[in-house]
User: Fold DNA gyrase inhibitor YacG from Pseudoalteromonas luteoviolacea S4054.
Amino acid sequence: MPTAVQCPTCQKEVIWSAQSPHRPFCSKRCQLIDLGEWSEENNKISSPVQSADLAQPDPQALIEDIEAMLAKNEDDFFK
Assistant:
């Protein structure tokens, strides 16, 4: 039995299958309405951005990681 979900815009039931090209939306219209809500910033991600998410990685650690990967795959890398 196919899974049925509700359209996020109009709450109409949508069958989750290849025959529903706009899933989880019921139509292109509902898909565009939702996109408009995001573009007008009426929707947002619910969790706040943490300062750790914005932290820049240590460049030296990145270089060491890349060098370790290259050393591990040294024979195959340039083939």
Summary: The longest strand covers residues 3-6.
